[in-house]
Amino acid sequence: MRLSFSAGARAAGTHTNLSAVRSDRPVLWVAGxxxxxxxxxxxxxxxxxxxYAAQTSTRLADLVELPGVxxxxxxxxEGLARHGDFLWAVGSHSLRRRQVKARHDGAKALxxxxxxxxxxxxxxxxxxxxxxxxxxxTVVREATVDGCTHRSAVFGTHGPDLRDLLADDEHLAPxxxxxxxxxxxxxxxxxxxxxxxxxxxxxxxxxxWAVVLELRPEVDPDDPxxxxxxxxxxxxxxxxxxxxxxxxxVRDLCPHGEDLLVLAGPTMDLDGxxxxxxxxxxLSADTPQVVRGDQLTREVDLPFGAGVDHAxxxxxxxxxxxxxxxxxxxxxxxxxxxxxxGVTADVVRLPATTRSP
Length: 357
Prior knowledge:
With 357 residues, the protein is mainly beta.
């Protein structure tokens, strides 16, 4: 599938840093991990698209208040979800360690490796209203639907953010000071169904177990631009699930019926393997889950390269009579994926399933 971008987006490298994707019938929502924007691409044929183009870019700062001093500081958007009247986006919430490049050696290289930084705009979960404008889904700051007014809203700008909530977690707290590429906290997927918001963690992976967090966001009655997390029965504002994904972390999540499709890939700064698993019945679970055995099936294996073709996002296309199709976008795409106006994504067919259709 050809994805074509504007000249400005190509100059910024957005097409080579894709980290999230969601299909929305005539359009495709995508995001890159080095901006604070969401991109909309339009299908050349809404029934059987061969290309998505006509890019529109939306700054998150035009819709919600971001926590960073610089509104255009990257939000490292690592997941997109489309549900009901809203598009959701989540930042990685990760810390960064400076890279050592070829020109660095000796003491300078070691100094760079010692420097760990964070970016405030990464620490957000955002819910954006979607309306029909000229026949196309469009994100807006505020919309009235069936007499109810919805505003763009954010969790993480005012009050505690996700990292604050995890500060005393018995499993995840020790990893909060660790950069994402070192197996530290790194959110890289989101799936929304009903009131459930699932966040997939690339890291940490705990002795081979990947972690998915479940949240129940709701609008603050005193501030419609702010999201709060409703507590679960145990008083915590999140629920933890752990998955046995062959030692891999979560790179994206995608609902399919009552199941979640889980894009699984390496944590840290490693290449492959990359698989798509099906977590059967994920969206009907009402307690923390230890997911293994027949609760998980490996649906498909995806390509990867040495330093290239890092699968980062998956999204279901409209069902094909021969079976569901999954669109896969890559960070650091191999040169042969690039074309004059953008990049080529993969379309893979999923095997039929008799559970949770």
